[in-house]
Fold:
Amino acid sequence: MKKNTVKNEYTNESISSLKGADRVRLRPSVIFGSDGLEGCEHSVFEILSNAIDEAREGFGNKIEIVLGRDNDITVCDHGRGIPVDYNANEEKYNWELLFCEMYAGGKYNNNGGDNYEFSLGLNGLGLCATQYSSEYMEVTIFRDGYKYELKFEKGENVGGLKKEKTSYKNTGSTIHWKPDRDVFTDINIPVEYFKDILKRQCIVNAGLKFELTDENTGEKYEYCYPEGIKDYIEEIAGDKSFSEIQYYTNEAKGRDRADKEEYKLKFELAFCFNNEVNNIEYYHNSSFLEHGGAPDKAVRSAFVSAVDAYLKNNNLYNKNEKKIVFSDIEDSLILIINSFSTVTSYENQTKKSITNKFIQEYLTDYLKEQLGIYFIENKADADKIAKQVLVNKRSRETAEKTRVNIKKKLTGNIDMNNRVEKFVNCRSKDVSKRELYIVEGDSALGSVMLGRDSEFQGIMPIRGKILNCLKANYDRIFKSDIITDLLKVIGCGVEIKAKHNTSKDLNSFDINNLRWDKIIICTDADVDGFQIRTLVLTMIYRLVPTLIDEHKVFIAESPLYEITAGSGKSEKTYFAYTEKEKADIISKIKGKYHIQRSKGLGENEPEMMWQTTMNPETRRLIMVMPEDAKKTSDIFDLLLGDNLTGRKEHIETEGYKYIDLTELS
Structure:
């Protein structure tokens, strides 16, 4: 009798294991953190890091990288050459261990004073994992008087090891490979990734030169910082720093736990305070620590402790004032830490954070001590730093109060009819169809309301000229009922810009709460109308610029002229939006015609409003682009700001263009 089988039966035979290349090819995100472009980029860094480790050991001072036309990559170093010949201890060829076995490498005894004391790659995974995840990999090595060649396809070796006696100028390894689209969803690594990663490696490997060639464009790039982080921090700081650059370097030994082995730590750090830029970067064993970990915790603790102590000791806090937080310091701080250790606890294989307890504790104590000495010996610098940190702190607190007040003012239901004076909603709840017309005054409200399609078009009248949001501070802006009402109707909150953009948490902005697909500014085609349009556009640019970036803001063109030709049943009306259009229309009319300068919006007939300004089939809308808004803001600032000389020069050179407009108005 045939035995019945259960579809979802879970038995001992249900358990299986991945073997060989499948361990990476089927689960790349386990090793590289992602099966997308980021994971592919990390696989490249694994090969690059081996070349960098060789250079740091003193073998070779130049690494060449080629980005090929077919998403293929070449990394060539001038180190000692990867050992690939027979290994009597392991009773295997080293190429099999390094390229085809996980957890095999020459960096496991680095804490015992062996090769690669301070190494980027410690886990013995990168070379093998990248080979496994490649469509193909070709390896050429010069060492021991021989040229060695290897080839792999889809994680499998093709043809074994080729070895021939040869003469050469330099030892070294060249690896040429193509990431596999069967493994990664995206292998099109942009040249910007290489430019960024190579620059970072120059920062932390003083004197090491990288040469990058992009075969897609023919461009070549070279990177080298002879003095490492010293050169880099001077480049970032420019001439805007208000404190001298401080540079420290030290070495130490310690352990993460009493029962763990002792290991070596060496590091260099540099910092200064700057009014224009802020930047904090951590590197460990040459790997950029995007998420920091131990050194970041040390910096936060040490700087807050040292600066807070200075403020207290010099009575710089106001009575009952709250203590500073790290973001107040970070707003003006440029700091680079470049550390190395013989034992490293990375958070995971992507090496973006380290967790070494000893490194954190040692750096914290060392930094506190050095900062204390620095503040005592350089009182002028210390006073400037303390003053700026307090300015940052008080600005942050003011911005937080503003955010809370704004949230209270802008909180409201989507049904604004009873909350915002004279706002006229539309019936549709489908945000993808809804349009908000911002119109000039009550008279325009009447004609636009009668001319609109009430299904999807809402109207918000502007009562007079609104505040110039370029110059006003947030407190003054949000005391304006017109502005807060308009923001309520728009619905997505505001974007508060704090110093160095470190206060992103202060924003109440969420584009998902936007209640309209289009926001259309609709004003008269005269000087007053243009000014109101500019004020509204400036408000949007200052408070909700993302709406412009997302192409949600438009200007409705109103016709300048209404031209009537014929009479009776044959009478036709044309609308001209420019002088050229007026001339073109007149040239085509046979017989008599009548030209009338277009009236203000409030005087237009509803049918005309629908046809010329509101009907999606016949209206003309100008999409406001980010560069348009920026230019408008700059010109508006010139015309209404504090630059009197600039305004006078602008009027002298440009004013004649607008004389006709003033006469027409």
